[in-house]
């Protein structure tokens, strides 16, 4: 059972890391010399004047800009090489994937806290009443207490069979 749980945990971590798709930042010079001549740019998004996301041919690039002059140079270079480019100016802060996960976690947490306490109390009562050795009772109790929600589920899945 522990082997299956470790495999599931490794898969979940892999999916989380893959889904945190942060675009690589490139310099203005690298973009104008290597990417701009080879791709058709369809959209240019300027976020707070610091970074520019450029979509073209299905690819997205984060161009790291130092100052407003670089931003204006990039806009003019893109407009001269590509006709009909959509330019979007945005003053929003990109919170990133972590903030969205945190917001979702905070809402889900409201529902999991009561469920966790009910499961913990039931698991501790069943651990105390079980006929296993004292060191196993202590181990199951520590797992149930120190691994919120999942510790109780682990006990119900593995501990009853022991």
Automatic annotation (TrEMBL):
Ranges where the Cardiolipin synthase N-terminal domain occurs: 118-159
Locations listed in the record: Cell membrane
Membrane-spanning segments: 104-125, 137-158
Pfam family, one: PLDc_N
Protein name: Cardiolipin synthase N-terminal domain-containing protein
Keywords on record: Cell membrane, Membrane, Transmembrane, Transmembrane helix
Membrane topology: Multi-pass membrane protein
GO cellular component: plasma membrane
Chief location: membrane
């Amino acid at each position: 059972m522990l082997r299956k749980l470790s495999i599931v945990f490794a898969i979940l971590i892999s999916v989380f890391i893959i889904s945190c798709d942060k675009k690589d930042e490139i310099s203005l010079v690298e973009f104008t010399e290597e990417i701009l001549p080879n791709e058709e740019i369809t959209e240019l998004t300027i976020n707070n004047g610091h970074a520019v996301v450029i979509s073209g041919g299905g690819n997205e690039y984060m161009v790291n800009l130092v100052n407003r002059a670089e931003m204006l140079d990039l806009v003019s270079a893109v407009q001269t090489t590509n006709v009909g480019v959509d330019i979007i100016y945005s003053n929003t802060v990109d919170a990133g994937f972590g903030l969205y996960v945190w917001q979702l976690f905070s809402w889900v947490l409201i529902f999991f806290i009561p469920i966790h306490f009910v499961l913990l109390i039931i698991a501790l009562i069943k651990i105390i009443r079980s006929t296993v050795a004292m060191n196993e009772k202590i181990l199951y109790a520590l797992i149930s207490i120190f691994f919120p929600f999942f510790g109780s589920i682990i006990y119900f899945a593995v501990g009853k069979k022991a």
